[in-house]
Specification:
Layout lengths: L1 E5 L3 E6 L4 E7 L9 E3 L4 E3 L10 H10 L4 E7 L1 H20 L5
Antiparallel strand pairs: 1-2, 2-3, 3-6, 4-5
Length: about 100
Protein backbone atom coordinates (compact mmCIF):
# COMPACT_ATOMS: atom_id res chain seq x y z
CA UNK A 1 0.00 0.00 0.00
CA UNK A 2 1.29 3.44 -0.91
CA UNK A 3 0.52 6.56 1.06
CA UNK A 4 0.91 9.76 -0.95
CA UNK A 5 0.68 13.35 0.26
CA UNK A 6 0.92 16.18 -2.26
CA UNK A 7 1.69 19.69 -1.11
CA UNK A 8 2.20 22.88 -3.07
CA UNK A 9 5.95 22.46 -3.55
CA UNK A 10 6.60 18.87 -2.47
CA UNK A 11 5.22 15.34 -2.71
CA UNK A 12 5.80 12.65 -0.10
CA UNK A 13 5.17 8.99 -0.79
CA UNK A 14 5.53 6.06 1.60
CA UNK A 15 5.52 2.52 0.22
CA UNK A 16 4.43 0.07 2.91
CA UNK A 17 5.66 -3.02 1.04
CA UNK A 18 9.23 -1.74 0.52
CA UNK A 19 9.23 0.43 3.68
CA UNK A 20 10.66 3.24 1.55
CA UNK A 21 10.03 6.98 1.30
CA UNK A 22 10.12 9.07 -1.87
CA UNK A 23 10.35 12.87 -1.60
CA UNK A 24 9.96 15.12 -4.66
CA UNK A 25 10.26 18.89 -4.69
CA UNK A 26 8.72 21.15 -7.30
CA UNK A 27 9.04 24.78 -8.17
CA UNK A 28 6.14 27.14 -8.71
CA UNK A 29 5.12 26.86 -12.37
CA UNK A 30 2.41 29.48 -12.17
CA UNK A 31 3.05 32.06 -14.89
CA UNK A 32 2.71 35.79 -14.47
CA UNK A 33 -0.83 37.02 -14.72
CA UNK A 34 -0.08 40.57 -15.85
CA UNK A 35 1.64 39.56 -19.07
CA UNK A 36 -0.05 39.82 -22.42
CA UNK A 37 -0.73 36.46 -24.06
CA UNK A 38 -1.13 35.74 -27.76
CA UNK A 39 -3.26 32.60 -28.21
CA UNK A 40 -2.36 32.30 -31.90
CA UNK A 41 1.36 31.91 -31.36
CA UNK A 42 1.14 30.65 -27.76
CA UNK A 43 3.85 32.94 -26.41
CA UNK A 44 3.95 35.70 -23.82
CA UNK A 45 5.54 39.05 -24.30
CA UNK A 46 5.86 42.31 -22.40
CA UNK A 47 4.69 44.39 -25.33
CA UNK A 48 1.52 44.40 -27.37
CA UNK A 49 0.71 41.00 -28.88
CA UNK A 50 -1.92 41.81 -31.50
CA UNK A 51 -3.83 43.81 -28.88
CA UNK A 52 -5.10 40.71 -27.08
CA UNK A 53 -5.15 40.73 -23.27
CA UNK A 54 -5.59 37.39 -21.54
CA UNK A 55 -8.94 36.81 -19.82
CA UNK A 56 -9.42 34.94 -16.53
CA UNK A 57 -10.69 31.84 -18.33
CA UNK A 58 -7.71 31.76 -20.71
CA UNK A 59 -5.32 32.20 -17.80
CA UNK A 60 -6.96 29.38 -15.82
CA UNK A 61 -6.79 27.09 -18.86
CA UNK A 62 -3.12 27.92 -19.45
CA UNK A 63 -2.21 27.29 -15.80
CA UNK A 64 -4.09 23.96 -15.76
CA UNK A 65 -2.06 22.71 -18.75
CA UNK A 66 1.28 23.43 -17.06
CA UNK A 67 3.00 20.76 -15.02
CA UNK A 68 5.56 21.97 -12.51
CA UNK A 69 9.02 20.56 -13.20
CA UNK A 70 10.58 18.36 -10.54
CA UNK A 71 13.58 20.04 -8.91
CA UNK A 72 14.77 17.10 -6.88
CA UNK A 73 13.87 13.54 -5.99
CA UNK A 74 15.09 11.64 -2.94
CA UNK A 75 14.52 7.91 -2.47
CA UNK A 76 15.11 6.54 1.02
CA UNK A 77 15.33 2.78 1.55
CA UNK A 78 14.11 1.03 4.70
CA UNK A 79 17.10 1.96 6.85
CA UNK A 80 17.24 5.64 5.91
CA UNK A 81 13.45 6.02 5.97
CA UNK A 82 13.40 4.70 9.54
CA UNK A 83 16.25 7.05 10.50
CA UNK A 84 14.39 10.04 9.02
CA UNK A 85 11.14 9.14 10.83
CA UNK A 86 13.02 8.69 14.08
CA UNK A 87 14.69 12.08 13.63
CA UNK A 88 11.35 13.80 12.94
CA UNK A 89 9.70 12.19 15.97
CA UNK A 90 12.63 13.13 18.20
CA UNK A 91 12.52 16.78 17.07
CA UNK A 92 8.75 16.97 17.52
CA UNK A 93 8.98 15.48 21.02
CA UNK A 94 11.74 17.89 21.91
CA UNK A 95 9.63 20.85 20.84
CA UNK A 96 6.49 19.43 22.48
CA UNK A 97 8.07 18.99 25.92
CA UNK A 98 10.02 22.26 25.84
CA UNK A 99 8.80 24.80 28.35
CA UNK A 100 7.58 28.05 26.79
CA UNK A 101 9.74 31.08 27.47
CA UNK A 102 8.08 33.86 29.41
Amino acid sequence: MKIRRELKYATFEYDDEDKSILIETRQDARPDREKVFNPLSGDCCDGDCNGHIETDEEYAERVSKLDAPINGRIYLNKTYAFALLRFVVRISQRNWFRKPKK
